[in-house]
Amino acid sequence: MNTIHSAIVTVSSKGWVVIPSSIRRKIGLRPGTKVKVTETEGKIVLTPQTCDPVDEFYGKLAGGESLTAALLADRAEERKG
């Protein structure tokens, strides 16, 4: 069963709202976590975002064979042949 946790917080003059630490811990919010903000039926919903797959895989192929170099080499061979 899902338990609903709630707290009363104050919106700052800059529009900032502090999410209570007990709620941050429960849902695993860490500094730097991206949060999607959605308005629906007069309610504000904050949804933690998973890692961006592009960011997650950035650099994974570094150090391997250059696909561009391989393609250029193939094209050069085709021109010779």
Written account of the structure:
By secondary structure, this protein is α+β, with helices and mostly antiparallel strands. The protein has one domain (21-80). The protein is 32% helix and 15% strand. The protein has three helices and two strands; from the N terminus they run H-E-E-H-H. Strands 1-2 form a two-stranded antiparallel ribbon.
- Total strands: 2
Rounded mean pLDDT is 86
Low-confidence stretches: none
Taken in chain order, the helices and strands follow as HEEHH
**Secondary structure tally, helices:** 3
- Please state the structural category: alpha+beta
**Gap from first CA to last CA:** 69 Å
Question: What is the gyration radius calculated from CA atoms?
Answer: 24 Å
Percentage of residues assigned to helices: 25-40%
> How much strand?
5-15%
What best-fitting shape do the alpha-carbon axes yield?
A: rod-shaped
Strand order of the largest sheet: 1-2
Question: What's the main sheet like?
Answer: 2 strands, antiparallel
Number of domains: 1
